Amino acid sequence: MLKLLKKIPGFSKLDDETLSVIDEVMDPMTIRSGETICTEGEKCDKMFVIESGKISVLKTVEDNESIEVAVLQDGDIAGEMGLFGQKNRTATLRAKTECRVWALHYAVFERLLEQHPSLARGLLNYMSGHLARETSIAAKLMAKDMDKGLRIAFFHATPYRNDLYSKFNCYNYATHFFTPRLTMETVTLAAGFRVIVVSANDCLDEEVITELHNLGVEMIALRCAGFNNVDLKACEKLGISVARVPAYSPHAVAEHAVALIMGLNRRIHRAHSRVREGNFSLHGLIGFDMHGKTAGIVGTGRIGSCLVRILNGFGCDLLAYDVFQNQELVERFSLTYVELDELFAESDIISLHAPLTPETYHLIDATAIEKMKPGVMLINTARGALIDSNALIDGLKNGKIGYAGLDVYEEEGAYFFEDFSNRVITDDVLARLTTFNNLMITGHQGSLTQQAQESIVDTTIENIREFELGKRDKELTNAVVFSD
């Protein structure tokens, strides 16, 4: 072992006494061909010195595919970073042939450093070479698929959308789909991509935006209409263009709001559960005629306007609140614009379709609920934070709110679009909401129709195409820009 250590850069300059001490604490191991020595993501608490044989260094890329980025052999070291603090391994090591290796454990190494400081100085020389090797590996990974065109990273990717993006990829973009949400912990996945595609539940605060800029990202393509999760001021400062999908299928979201209304009204969810258990009792399932009821619509943009048309067909009396009034709706559907307080006081059904802004945050709070009719139905298919969830719970408990239908939730980012059926929901507010039998929650699926999804994908790709052709910031058709 002493002869081997003397051949290794970093160790070779150490004196024989120090090398003898290292030799005494290293453990020999024989690894069979094909055997995995350690796995990417595991805690790295030991270093390996290869005496004989060959070992593959494997990195995981998209779709859990592993690629070989290096081969280690006689005299090479692996896992040396683990000797300077327990980090997660950045690669998998797998024997290509039968190998003999020597292992040095982190705890043993710590004691050696206290007794022999020269050991740390010697390893610093080796670490500089290690850094050069890792940089080369990173360059290989970043260059993967470069010849396919503009490289785009999709965060919080889901199979049904991935297939659509692949299908509509008429410009031959190199698309990479990452399952995790974009956060400060996952932002490094954007390295080497000029464009990223994100959702309303990804984090794009100043810290993340700054790191995206450092990684070379030049455009953020939102696959949604809302942009309240994006720090636009930071984007403008750092020259990152932002585009969104302003409208995909307003009919889809409006129709989902109606589905929640009718499901709650006629107790469809409860009736379905009963029948599946063989219980055909009608007790407690009485609903009401929609005809003649007063519906209050907060926000009469594209989605709110669609809902006006649908509820007019039911024969509802229609009230609305919006800063920008749509006179066509007034003339065609006898819609009446009123102030919020009047809408709260007069409506049997209230449906929210407003954007989330500082002014609309917790628009529905305890004060607003107190102004509503007893037993009112509250529907939210817009943004979760329009409603103060704790105030909603109080309203449901005291009977002020008779029904609630939610397709969004203010803390949904930690749960929505994921399967928690075998895990514990630790959000006490969300867990409490699910216990009410007069409340229906769906997982932000209002736009989940084939037509809406195809429209989102098509618009997102065209937004990226404009960027590829040289348009920036305000030049983009669907640009989102910072304004004071």
Question: How would you describe this structure to a colleague?
Answer:
There is one protein chain. With about 475 residues, the protein is an alpha/beta fold. It folds into three domains: about 1-145, Jelly Rolls (Sandwich); about 150-250 and about 450-475, Rossmann fold (3-Layer(aba) Sandwich), CATH 3.40.50.720; about 250-440, 3-Layer(aba) Sandwich (Rossmann fold), CATH 3.40.50.720. About 35% of the residues lie in helices and about 20% in strands. The protein has helices spanning about 1-5, 15-25, 105-115, 120-145, 160-165, 205-215, 230-240, 250-265, 270-275, 300-315, 325-335, 340-345, 365-370, 390-400, 430-435, 450-470; strands spanning about 25-30, 35-40, 45, 45-50, 55-60, 65-70, 75-80, 85-90, 90-95, 100-105, 150-155, 175, 195-200, 220, 240-245, 295-300, 315-320, 335, 350, 375-380, 400-405, 440. The strands form five sheets. Strands 18-17-16-19-20-21-22 form a seven-stranded parallel sheet, sandwiched between helices. The chain starts with a helix and ends in a 16-residue tail after the last helix. The model is unreliable at about 130-135 and about 145 (pLDDT under 50).
